[in-house]
Amino acid sequence: VTSVIAHQLKTPLAGLKSALEVLLAGQLGAVPPAQEEYLRIALEETERMIAQVRDLLDAAHIDERKFVLSPTPVDFAAVVRQAMAAVEPFARAKNTTLSLTVEPNLPTLSLDGPKLQQAVSNVIDNAIRYNRGRGRVALSLRRVGRRVVFACRDSGIGIGRAEAKHLFTKFYRAPAAVTIVPSGSGLGLYIARAIVEQSGGRLWFESVPGQGTTFYLALPVQ
Amino acid sequence: MADAPQWKILVVEDDKFLSRLYSDQLRRDGFDVIVASSGDEGLGRARREHPDLVLLDIILPDKNGFDVLSALKLDEGTTRTPVVILTNLGRDADVQTGLKLGAAGYLIKTDISITRLGEEVRRHLVTARSAGGGER
Known about the structure:
By secondary structure, chain A is an alpha+beta fold. Chain A is 50% helix and 20% strand. In chain A, the strands form 2 sheets. A 5-stranded mixed beta sheet of chain A has the order 2-4-5-7-6. Chain A has a two-stranded antiparallel ribbon with strand order 1-3. Chain B has helices spanning 16-28, 39-49, 65-74, 92-100, 117-130, and strands at residues 8-12, 32-36, 53-56, 83-87, 105-108. The radius of gyration of chain B is 13 Å and the shape is globular.
């Protein structure tokens, strides 16, 4: 039912987004600055809704066991760089500095590149979202035995013990997170963990409340 | 844009608002546009009016887009007409089905920017022409 409703929402959302883009591009006439601001906000809100519907569909497909991965040889570092590029505008808007350290000569992995990028993006997005003003998010990639481990360390609010056990639960949002960002879907980490586990890997975190959190995403070397 | 007005695009889309948005955009971009709101109507118009490219939705009344695409590729009169799928079905399996059936491209409605639709269509037309398809 969820996937049917989510899918049906995409048609009107596509119409809304397209109409707002046409108006903002001035294709139907010049737009006065006061109207332009409202239209821009409406477009951003529409895009946010589209992202949430996409998450909802992914979560429904995971639950219905229809979330299929197509593994190919993948350069994990390239995937992380693409994920970084995708979240870079958001980091800039939140005054957060991203950095990446990659250990040389990492092996190629057999994974679904786009889905892995989605998981990595969700983890980085989460770190930026719940960071403090002018925060830092340090990313690293290294080999540990038979695994390649991606780490994402933030200088954010941290995760308390009571919240920790629910963090990967669908729709769960920590009380402190709701205070900072009222509108999250509570699906990003749920989807990320499903992708990682379906890829034969593991996603977990370590946190010191008030100091920050590090998420680890470990994937097997074949 | 110089030779754009000669291209005829068939938009097969059952949602009235989206159909109007895509058609208006392509006309503003200099294309000649015809529309169909069901799979059968789309197939009929493609066979009768020989568009240079078909923009094809998948979930349609009476005949879905994959069936329309298969029929177009089996028909000698339309087999070389590039078909670009424009849908909200974004699962890998759907994309693979579309490309295996011979779609020239696969676009997701909520992901594309409509102001770039004309550019995308023109790119497929140029590719098809250089490959020897869709001759005029």
